[in-house]
Design a protein that fits this description.
The complex is a heterodimer of chains A (727) and B (218). Chain A is 35% helix and 24% strand. Chain A contains 27 helices and 28 strands. Chain A has a 7-stranded mixed β-sheet. In chain A, a hairpin with a 7-residue loop joins strand 14 and strand 15. Chain B has a single domain, classed as Rossmann fold. Helices cover 22% and strands 22% of the residues of chain B. In chain B, strand 10 and strand 11 form a beta hairpin. The chains are: A alpha+beta (727), B alpha/beta (218).
Chain lengths: 727, 218
């Protein structure tokens, strides 16, 4: 097979490269082109779609195109954030795959000049009754903890779901949130011909060669064990030193610009800096400190060795930069210079061994039109584990014990969630984490959400629902969204049905963001999440940062005896796409259209109510419907309730099963004093009083059906995850 | 406040000392002069990466040699989490901290019962008093051979125990923190520096920092 095809380039792309260069590329050049023209770096199947997303907003400081997005939080401070995937490395080697996923997203935020203050993770696995899945879960959770804990960055939240389509292709999406003084932030553009290119951090080795093209831009399949060497090895201690070193360099104003080294290593890092600055760049591979002797120039240029940063430095500052690196005992090497040639030149033994126009290399990758076609059949397996006619109490226990819904405390306790002294609301019962930012006299809330199951049923509605759920999670702690980041995890976009999922999903993402007035400030795309057993559920994961004016008013307290419980929002429950449908084996195409305007009105009403400080508890209705939402609140409080869903059934004309277990965006459970909840009515948002907090039993009446279960049984089901994943 | 490469909680500890009414600053691990401070905090984290064994490298730092001299002269020293591990590795405290019996990192709000130890660090606390303080570590299982354990317990060197039934790591005798024979050196696994503000969970940890300041040595 032709070399370019082994590296993932099509014949047409290879011809295009030859046309642009006026000759055939040599080995070094071909290696570099193959990486920057891969889906992972070149976004060739997603760029056109992504350009339709709204990116502007009054609080946006940095948007797409930078290492991470950033929003203004006041008093001269900005919050930077981004989510990124490390799916394929984690499928091959879960511990290091997840650890380096955390390390990589941390460096994106560090590169802006921000100090990371929080991590969140969105994880997907197959059902845990499979031994390999348990190995993956254990490795990924340990890997995330290993890196974040050792770095002293708190992991404050996240979500984990389990479904068969992820069995061979787990998802590991990590989101980092950082804090920076706005005027000390740096962009990734190289500038000033004659300035020097400085490589900071770890030695460069043969690890991770071809990771972006080999792993991230093709389907997983047989022989993946042989790809294990393409997974990088993480060293959080080195990253910790690199972080402190970069913070000191930036505080002293010693850097012109800064960029992390991630996928495609020096090639993408230096290339993108040159492209952003409209300059040329020259890298002398003989100056790159190596972990092992005898590395070829192309290997040095594409190595994905971790814990490295690239800085542009004016010549008269270089000595001071060296001193700071030495203080932090981290690597320092001048490896090249900025030129005015517009070319990316690779030098070895004093001679150019590769020379390409930066425009061709970085921006020349063609963007393809997708050829979407709606699937004619349901492509996902869905084995039933629950009888659809089961007694509702049995169904509720099955839902609570479903690994997707069950408490994730087992995982969260393996992460340091408090280092940094900012964590007001820790991971656990609340829907979003809250971090205090005393520097700016404010607080932020952060959340991450994805619902592949529902997006699989209907990509537009499912994605709108995902964005609404993330905004709802923020509303429950009184936060108003400032910006959104996303990671689009999909199958092979060259297949028309996957292209349809991707197209409809991105439309939903854009429509929901426009309706909410939330700008998309950055994102990442992970395609080719397929194995011989099929594609994953299409899984757009969204992360949001919101503003919390008063961290004392976040409605995260457990409900109390005597409180009333209300359902707020245009909630119109349906079993279509629900976790109940997943358990009963009845998933299939189609979701009701969400009431976008109504849901947003409810989100705003709940946010304002929480901010007023009068609501004790707020929780959005999500997987498993109202019954699960009430059970979670009851377990958390150690207090039961006695509610009647008759008014909901009357308003929406739904069945008792719909009322208990149906799902749909735009529903909130609030608890507090009766008079406080009553005042929420009459503002155009449906408010139904459900009943009081009372006793040690969950009693929910829905038409002719009634669920009555003691808290102990609920808790036993809800806390069953450790037994499921550690077995 | 010592700062090693790989320290994580040093800024939190600085903040805690200041909230308790003290003045605090960082001391670089390469400095062998503590600059006339009244008390030393060896903070939590993963000093030098802790790839070999928790705290095993940090003990050789110039700053730790200075801390050993400071402690020998009776200066108050507290080691929190990784700092406790460093103090044990340095021989300033007896016993050792082994990986948790779960083999996993654990992070949760814990309950600490004040022990009988006589120390400036616990001078503001009554034995039996219960504190709500976060616990977070991977290697926090306190271990000592039977004779040594007997000596620590009977010698009144136990400063803190996990409340009954809440031992998170398999520590012998539920021990969460101990002092040296003289009482001036305290090591504990839980994190009082993360319990200094009700907004972030608890302010029970302040009493430890106030204790050393109130004892007139801070």
């Amino acid at each position: 097979m032709a070399r370019h095809r082994e590296l993932g380039l099509t014949d047409r792309e290879y011809e295009l490269i030859c046309d642009r260069m006026g000759r055939e590329p040599n080995g070094v050049e071909l290696a570099m082109f193959s990486l920057l023209w891969s889906e992972h770096c070149g976004y060739k199947h997603s760029r056109k779609l992504l350009s339709t997303l709204p990116t502007e907003g009054p609080r946006v400081v940095m948007g797409p195109g930078e290492n991470a997005g950033a929003v203004d939080v006041g008093n001269g401070y900005s919050v930077a954030f981004k989510v990124e995937s490390h799916n394929h490395p984690s499928a091959v080697e879960p511990f290091q795959g997840a650890a380096t996923g955390v390390g990589g997203i941390l460096r994106d935020v560090i590169a802006l000049g921000a100090r990371p203050i929080a991590m969140l993770d969105s994880l997907r696995f197959g059902p845990p009754d499979d031994e390999r899945t348990r190995y993956l879960v254990d490795g990924v959770v340990r890997g995330i903890g290993h890196y974040g804990n050792s770095m002293g960055i708190p992991t404050v939240g996240g979500e984990i779901e389990f479904a068969a389509p992820y069995a061979q292709n787990p998802l590991v999406n990590a989101m980092c949130v950082g804090l920076a003084k706005t005027d000390e932030m740096v962009r990734a553009a190289a500038s000033g011909p004659g300035n020097l290119v400085v490589l900071i951090g770890s030695l460069t080795g043969r690890d991770g060669i071809g990771g972006a093209s080999v792993l991230a831009s093709a389907e997983l399949g047989e022989g993946d064990d042989a790809k294990r060497p393409t997974v990088q090895i993480g060293d959080p201690f080195e990253e910790s030193k690199v972080l402190e070193c970069c913070q000191e360099l930036l505080a002293e104003g010693l850097l012109v610009s800064l960029q992390d080294l991630g996928a495609a290593g020096l090639t993408s890092s230096a290339g993108e800096m040159a492209s952003a600055g409209r300059v040329g760049i020259e890298i002398d591979v003989d100056e790159v400190p190596l972990r092992e002797a005898g590395m070829e120039p192309f290997e040095i240029m594409v190595s994905e060795s971790q814990e490295r940063m690239l800085a542009i430095v004016e010549p008269d500052q270089v000595e001071r930069v060296r001193e700071v690196c030495e203080k932090w005992q981290t690597g320092f090497a001048v490896v090249g210079r900025v030129t005015d040639s517009g070319k990316f030149t690779v030098v070895a033994d004093g001679e150019a061994v590769g020379e390409m126009a930066v425009d061709d290399l970085v921006d020349g990758c063609p963007a393809y039109d997708l050829e979407p076609a709606e699937p004619t059949e349901w492509p996902y397996s869905n084995d039933p584990s629950l009888d659809p006619e089961a007694d509702p109490a049995e169904a509720l226990l099955a839902l609570l014990a479903s690994p997707t819904i069950a408490s994730k405390q087992w995982a969260f306790e393996q992460y340091d969630s408090i280092v940094g002294s900012r964590t007001v609301v820790r991971p656990g019962p609340a829907d979003a984490a809250v971090l205090s930012i005393p520097e700016a006299g404010t607080a932020i809330a952060v959340a991450i959400d994805g619902s592949g199951r529902r997006v699989a049923c209907e990509p537009w509605s499912g994605t709108v629902g995902t964005v609404l759920e993330c905004a709802a999670n923020l509303a429950c702690v009184g936060a108003e969204p400032l910006g959104l980041t996303n990671c689009l995890n999909f199958g092979n976009p060259e297949k028309p049905t996957i292209a349809w999922q991707l197209t409809r999903s991105v439309e939903g993402l854009g429509d929901a963001c426009r309706a909410l007035g939330v700008p998309v400030v950055g994102g990442n795309v992970s395609l080719y999440n397929e194995t011989p057993s099929g594609p994953i559920y299409p899984t757009p994961v969204v992360g949001m940062v919101g503003e919390v004016p008063d961290p004392n008013r976040v409605a995260s307290r457990p409900w109390e005896e005597g409180d009333q419980i209300a359902l707020v929002g245009p909630f119109d429950p349906s079993l279509a796409g629900s976790e109940f449908a997943a358990l009963t084996g009845s998933l299939g195409p189609g979701l009701p259209d969400p009431d976008l305007e109504g849901a947003i009105a409810a989100i705003e009403l709940v946010r304002d109510a929480v901010r007023s400080g009068s609501v004790r508890t707020a929780h959005d209705v999500s997987d498993g419907g109202i019954a699960v939402a009430l059970a979670e609140l009851a377990i958390n409080a150690g207090l039961g309730c006695e509610v009647d869903l008759g008014s909901l059934i009357a308003r929406t004309d739904c069945s008792p099963e719909d009322a208990l277990f149906g799902e749909c965006p735009g529903g909130f459970i609030l608890a507090g004093e009766h008079s406080v909840l009553e005042q929420l009515g009459g503002k155009g948002v449906p408010v139904e009083m459900l009943g009081p907090v009372a006793g040690d039993e969950l009693r929910v009446a829905a038409g002719e059906r009634t669920v009555a279960l003691g808290l102990a049984r609920l808790r036993e089901a809800w806390e069953s995850l450790p037994a499921a994943v550690e077995a | 406040m010592l700062q090693f490469p790989g320290s994580c909680d040093e800024r939190d500890a600085l903040n805690a000392c200041r909230l308790a009414g003290g003045e605090a600053r960082l001391i670089w691990h390469g400095d062998d002069d503590l600059g006339g401070v009244d008390a030393v905090v060896v903070p939590g984290g993963f000093s030098y990466g802790d790839y070999l064994r928790a705290g095993s490298i940090a003990r050789f730092s110039p700053a730790m040699e200075a801390v050993a001299r400071f402690a020998a002269d009776g200066g108050p020293v507290i080691g929190i989490c990784n700092g406790f591990q460093v103090l044990c590795e340095s021989g300033l405290l007896p016993g050792a901290l082994l990986p948790n019996d779960s083999t996993r990192f654990t992070c949760h709000q814990g309950e600490l019962v004040v022990g009988e130890a006589d120390s400036p660090w616990t001078s503001a606390l009554e034995p039996g008093h219960v504190l709500s303080v976060p616990v977070k570590h991977q290697s926090g299982r306190f271990f000592a051979p039977p004779d040594l354990l007997e000596e620590i317990v009977s010698g009144g060197q136990v400063a803190f125990r996990y409340s009954p039934g809440s031992n998170p790591n398999g520590s012998l005798d539920d021990i969460a923190g101990i002092v040296n024979r003289e009482g001036n050196v305290l090591g504990l696994m839980p994190h009082p520096e993360h319990a200094v503000d009700a907004l972030t969970g608890s302010e029970d940890g302040l009493a430890i920092f106030r204790g050393v300041i109130g004892a007139g040595v801070g």
